[in-house]
Amino acid sequence: MSHGETVELVAFEKVTYDLLRELRDALTERIPLQSLEVRAHREALSLPDSAFNSARGQYDAHEILSILASKIPRDVHALGVVPEDLFVPRLNFVFGIAQRGGNAVIATVRLKPEFYGGASNQELFVERAVKEAVHELGHVFGLSHCDNDCVMRFSNSLPETDAKPSTFCEACKSKLEHVHR
Fold first, then answer.
1. 136 catalytic residue (yes or no)
2. What is the mean pLDDT of residues 40-60?
3. How far apart (Å, rounded) are the C-alpha atoms in residues 86 and 113?
4. CATH label of the domain that carries residue 46
């Protein structure tokens, strides 16, 4: 790889710095890029009212990506971590979205067991957040969805997210390493 890649984890609203640190450590361990630096942004950003769709009760994921692009240097990939529900047109919700070569955002609210009436489980919540973060950054770094037992497998529900690993399959690892030499 000719240069390093930097990922800046950016909290929105009440996302804790502890969660950012856990994500930082997991991403550093799971993304097989030799010159990857993952750091946690110290200050939380506010979710703007303009991004909120009151009819849906959700935030527009594309607007959050625009905010990240305006706040983070262009040579850095931002991963926004939002504690609210996100949507994109034509979908009821998204766990996250990414721009190839750009930034990504994940929504944590639906990753919590208590969102669906279950008991709070911090370990399960963090595991799900890690999977979504690794998945979206995989897209940022050029990967598409994968049919293998891989973090890049598409998931549209928590059972699908829970069933996939938090790591890349050998084919996706190879693609990442090839593209980022």
1. yes
2. 95
3. 17
4. 3.40.390.10
